[in-house]
Amino acid sequence: MREKWSSRSAFILAAIGSAVGLGNAWRFPGLAAKYGGGAFLFVYLLAMLVIGIPLLMMEISVSRYTRQGAPGSMRAMNKKTEGIGWLAVSNGIGISIYYAAVFAWVILMFFMSFKFKGMTGDTEAASSLWANTIKTTGTTSGFKTISWPVLGCLLLAWAFAYVCIRNGTTSVGKVVKFTVSLPVICLLIMAVRGMMMPGAMSGIAKLFIPQWSALGDSNLWVDAIGQVFYSLSTSMAIMFAYGSFLDEKSNIAIDTLIIAFSDMLISILAGIVMFTTMAGVGMLDNMSASGIATAFIIYPQAIVKISDSGIFNMIFAFIFYFCLITLAIDSLFSIIEGVSTAISDKFHLNKKKTTLTICIIEGLISLIYVTGAGLAILDIVDYFINSYTLILTGILEMIAAGWFFKTTKILDELNRNTKTFKMPSWWFLPSIKFISPVVLLGLFIWNLVNLIRSGGIYGAADNYSLKANIIFGWVLVALILCSGLIVKLIVKAKSSSGYKEDDRTWDQLS
User: Fold this and answer.
1) 500 occurs within a structural domain
2) In which domain, by residue range, is 454 found?
3) How do residues 436-460 score in pLDDT, each as one tens digit?
4) How far out from the chain centre does Cα 285 lie?
């Protein structure tokens, strides 16, 4: 019998925990600062309504009906589209491997926060603390250099992830009560402190007052749409897995809106923290759209300038990095849950053993990120997955649901238990069939054109080598795109020993 969420709140909190991650805390404020605050918020909200919410609703609705992870859900709609589900799973594998490394860096900074006590006003020491500890070369060379503190924190990150999901929905439901509420509490504390700082109102003004001329910048639209797409955890098998554990009586229409707008509100709260704090220390113009730079280089400079008290600054640092830990942990384990659910469903495996095996294998692969080349490799992998395979998966999911399946069946499933609010067809159907695929295709082409203009090498300005781009970029993309074929070959090999696939279609599951 398939496991289920213990309560409606457990599902909502788990989904919010997955959606709300490090990108909310550092990438969102950086992009808002780059594109005129309120103008970016406007496009972000528009993209959330037109693309984000319908796609999220589609994934959760289909998986609740099929009781399957991403591949099984896609297969139930049309047998030829199962491979799209494996694209989502492969995205999750790639992302979780490097996300664990970022989580390890956050844990490391939390442990080193006591050093801020003796750095009052010393922005140079604060900005170099992280880079010196991880021993990054800043290039794709330096594999022989290993940061032992990062290695210890990486092992801790994987251990945390496994412990949180070892018992499926039971353990996840217990963990998310804390990992969702604690970062909100931490952000509120930091927001109050930020609002009390001199010049805080100039930060608030920059965040919320639109510079409407920025709407003419095509990059704003690309980045705002991308932020929504990445933030909601779609196209990486997570929401398919979470939706498959839902009770038949669950109200997907309302719950999805709660998840999406919670994600947005927490992003805005993080923006308030970042803008008021940076304004208060006179660094409002120093904010970066790079999450890594913001969290580990720029914000530490702000921390040592918050007050003249080293102890206060140290406590503030502990709170900030503890907040990031709670944001990172549920995002990491939710991605692994999506991968584990898909694999255990497909091959009828023990879920707990599958999860442990995934954590061990991915943990071994992630060791590459503890080397001096780790930061550069992570940058390349993150770019290729987020710019190409993740977006391509979303496009294909929409096409499969909108053109190779009767989309009204998904809408009926979505609205099955709701009375107060029903997702209208004029909102859902055009988004799934036309608007979202076209917009995401435009985003995909935009990224590809920019890469071609740079000679096919991402990070050429940072001295990233062509060889590293091929191995950690193009080869990775090829493996993800071939994931469905690889699974087919495994199924064919297992069939000789009596293995049988679940061939039931949508109508046969009713």
Assistant:
1) no
2) 20-494
3) 999 999 999 999 999 999 888 898 8
4) 26
